[in-house]
User: What shape does this take?
Amino acid sequence: MQRMIEAVFREHKFVSRLDIILRAEAVDLPDDALEIVTLLPPGRYTRQKLCDQLNSAIVGHGWSRRFGTFD
Assistant: This one.
């Protein structure tokens, strides 16, 4: 997932939820990782805001041991 984050922000400073979901599907993230991405609320994200949202979803669902956190 870290590589997907780096790739999406290599080209843009802000990305939408849809941009992130499409990129996650394009890089063929595993189903459990894709589930985290689909939990994002609608909106536009900076890299930091996206990582904060993903980390919140990961911790909130008790998946931090499986995924760690992102920056």
Q: What stands out?
A: The longest strand covers residues 15-16. DSSP finds five helices and two strands in the chain.
